[in-house]
């Protein structure tokens, strides 16, 4: 019978793994309109400034600011409105002193104007009092009273105020959000270089495991890890590849793992978690390449019987077969590895503060990850532990996040403030 | 010149809208393995219990618990191991008193056993001391010392402990996560009824707007709203449909909006936000059906010139053309509308507590939405307002969340604790 595992802390395990893994990001072009959630491989730089012209931000009148200085409701400034600035084009007139032009929000300020006064701060005063003639064919001039002064540049956006030419818009490793697509398109960038998503091979192992569309016989269970992990691979930005269930037999397992490994950038094997089966998995990983298994056993609950490996440069993981352990370990090690293969900046982890509804006892010598659901009571958020053995898939279905209890904690009493990491 | 808008608060506007909108959810079948992020239309119910058999949770020996009562390290219980329980099958033997069978984690406990003792709590003691014969061809019996008592059921999962037959597994309106796919497949549910994603037509309007792959002339800007909104529609669970840019001309706009409306379950028009153009948009919406425009102008900054409408049962929204306002209003009204069309339970909004890095001044008479980026300083999260006019797309690109300042607030001083709603 093989010896029991030599446990590493999660931090030690990750450090050992990183010491042997040098991720390579492969860039590929992608149309910006299809690039939601893709990871930029190359920084995006503004080819020109934005806006490219002085843009009004309100409905009102383009003016020379000096004409409005000192204007009040009691003593308004009088201006002649001599034209209407066109939308989407440069005005073919130039404003002079005492003159104004109607402008719409987002329109280009006409030459000669240096500010815009809001419609709400003016009043129509009748015919052209100052005697100015129309500057635009078909435009009937009229005069306005301005009740307020405007400063030079007021109610306008200056060229380059949004972004300047040559500015780095987005750094490499940034995951593109809806507004980022807009930011890129605004400066005419319609294609970006993004990271090719890593292909993650998922192999479920176990003589007791049958495909989910098959009725399990006595002692058999359906394969669920392949599909929960496929979902987590997608969430992390990878492409999941699933394979037929591999048996607990060394030669057949080796062949199945080798096929998966060769077709992917990374392989994840979820196995029955008994000691003997873990050895099968470790052997199958070791035959893939050097250095092979680096860590076998991690001080995490649930998830102790975990394998971290690098084989000829590709990561390989052996995860426990129990669904709760399997997902916990995947999130701890495989998700960050996929992000490394994408060259992605660490995502902001979504956490919520909550009050713990029940005592959590200490797990001596292990970092403990306790699943919780959130409840609102009297306006306060409570984290209710969903206790359950790690074999129970419904522990996960009934919960929405996790509390990490550190390695050498004495447990957490009910009523404590805790931080819940929400499921992605 | 048309009159200024009669503003409604966001709550009033939403209530008026809901008074005229009766969402209908259409169900369609979907393979569970493809159902990540889909919304369940019909509750999922467990067709059978899980697990279906008594399952061991550790590596060890199946025993009759009574044989171990009183066992200690000094005075161990002696048992004869007479067989090995097979994985994925029912044992073809029945344990008697004083007998034990090797079991692996996840294996079915053999008939006659009522508990499992962990390998770690036993020791091999040599040949079969109790004289029991092998119950399995080819299995050489041996004896063990058990150092601890186990209770009936210990280290086992009982049938139905994970989920019981007939239990509702997931409610209608639930958005499927990776673990939910596992939970469904575990009980053999391979197809679910999910909500058909609503098609959301997006029409950008404006004489100054050109497609993003076109070089804008003087006074022109590229269409970005169509694509940021398409991203937000996808995030909300809908299918975005984009259309050519519509001009600021009533007949052409009416025709463009009608085409989009007829092909979709909901229409969103983003327009130049000047008063006169807003009237074009309102007219175009009113021609679509009854009752038409319900709200025109909302006390939200940014985003005042907003239209909420229902036309012959379908929602229609007129959003400001400024990108920041446009996205803010979309998230306030269009995202929840898409969720209603999906019959989706309200998602948990991701928020983080933070300390405000700069004063936010009051916006009298309006609910104010201030974009922020998050910074960690000395382990504390700070929300740094990204001030900028709502015309500036990079206000959004440079930020990652929003602080809501209520309608009649006096502003928020720097150093206050605030809640930041993170971008989806």
In short:
Chain A has 424 residues and is α/β, with parallel strands linked by helices.
Give an overview of the whole structure:
The structure is a homodimer of 424-residue chains. The first copy, chain A, has 424 residues and is α/β, with parallel strands linked by helices. The first copy, chain A, has four domains: 10-24 and 196-341, MoaB/Mog-like domain (Molybdenum Cofactor Biosythetic Enzyme, Chain A, 3-Layer(aba) Sandwich), CATH 3.40.980; 27-50 and 162-195, Alpha-Beta Complex (Molybdopterin biosynthesis moea protein, domain 2); 55-157, Beta Complex (Molybdopterin biosynthesis moeA protein, domain 3); 351-422, Beta-clip (Beta Barrel), CATH 2.40.340. In chain A, 19% of the residues lie in helices and 29% in strands. Chain A has helices at residues 10-18, 178-186, 225-236, 250-263, 275-286, 323-341, 393-397, and strands at residues 27-31, 44-45, 55-56, 60-63, 77-84, 99-103, 115-118, 122-126, 142-146, 156-157, 168-170, 191-195, 199-204, 209-210, 221-222, 239-242, 266-271, 291-296, 300-301, 307-311, 314-320, 351-356, 367-377, 380-385, 401-405, 417-422. A six-stranded mixed β-sheet of chain A has the order 7-4-6-5-9-8, with no helix packed on it. A six-stranded mixed β-sheet of chain A has the order 16-13-17-21-20-18, with helices on both faces. In chain A, strands 22-24-23-25-26 form a five-stranded mixed barrel. In chain A, helix 3 packs parallel to helix 6 (323-341). The longest helix of chain A has 19 residues, at 323-341. Chain A is elongated and about 100 Å long. The two termini of chain A are 39 Å apart.
